[in-house]
Amino acid sequence: MAALFVIIMAVEGIENLTKKKVDITEGIQFISQAEAAEVTAIETKIQNLEAQEKEEEQAEDTRSIKEVFTSAVVMGDSITAGFSEYDILNASSVVAQIGAGLEGAEEPIQQLKEINPQVVFLSYGMNDIISTQGDTDTFVENYKNVIKQMQKDIPNMKIFVNSIFPVQRQEIEKEPAFEHLEAYNEALREMCDKQQIAYVDNTELVAERYYEEDGVHLKPDFYPVWAQRMAEVASL
């Protein structure tokens, strides 16, 4: 490219000497095209290297799910408890109670404080929908209070908030409050945006085959899928 530039400059020099007009448009156009081609080639190489690096990282990660969550805790209700019940995660990575909601979370927060993890994934809402009966403002306020307390007790811990899993139709017919589930998730997302906390969207994660007969709780083979989603979002 440097040689081309020298040639064009030489042509311009001849023009000045002979006082004849020389058309260098084609030369400039050629240089521009060459520069554009070079930039494109460099960008393509960078993209290929990034893709290769990602593939290598994935290939090298032979850790089990339990090892991935060594420094993390999933905290929530009976759905969350499945991680320990089905032996997907170590007991030290799960803080959960059947029927747990955001109100009365003092004991789980104390357990979390004793574990002192680097990362926590919160998974509340199923029981809170029933207790608040469509009042998303109260739900969000309760969630904010739990997060505020955790930030005070474990200030260096990273917090992630899971969306509420959908329920099957038969459960909505049994408990009409679940008709508002999408509104709760939207309120939860907005809260996370305002609080600058990562939101883990699980809306499309649950296939019909993963549900237990009650249409709310989830089968054992779903938990590795959920764990992988959280690990990816948090870069564990």
Please characterize this protein's 3D structure.
With 236 residues, this protein is an alpha/beta fold. 56% of the residues lie in helices and 9% in strands. The protein is built from ten helices and five strands, in the order αααβαβαβααβααβα. The chain has helices at 2-18, 25-60, 65-68, 78-85, 106-115, 126-132, 136-153, 169-174, 181-195, 223-234; strands at 72-76, 94-96, 119-123, 158-162, 198-200. A five-stranded parallel beta sheet has the order 2-1-3-4-5, with helices on both faces. Helix 5 (106-115) packs parallel to helix 7 and helix 7 (136-153) packs parallel to helix 9 (181-195). The longest helix has 36 residues, at 25-60. Mean pLDDT is 86; it is low at 1-11 and 13-20.
Helix share bin: 55-70%
Distance between the termini: 46 Å
Mean pLDDT over the full residue set: 86
Any idea what the shape is? elongated
What is the subunit arrangement here? single chain
- Main beta sheet: 5 strands, parallel
User: What is the tally of helical segments?
Assistant: 10
Strand content: 5-15%
Kindly provide the radius of gyration, computed on alpha-carbon positions and rounded to a whole number of angstroms.
29 Å
* Number of distinct beta strands: 5
The strand line-up of the biggest sheet is 2-1-3-4-5
Please identify the structural class as seen in this structure: alpha/beta
Q: Helix-strand pattern, N to C?
A: HHHEHEHEHHEHHEH
Contiguous low-pLDDT stretches (5 residues minimum) are: 1-11, 13-20
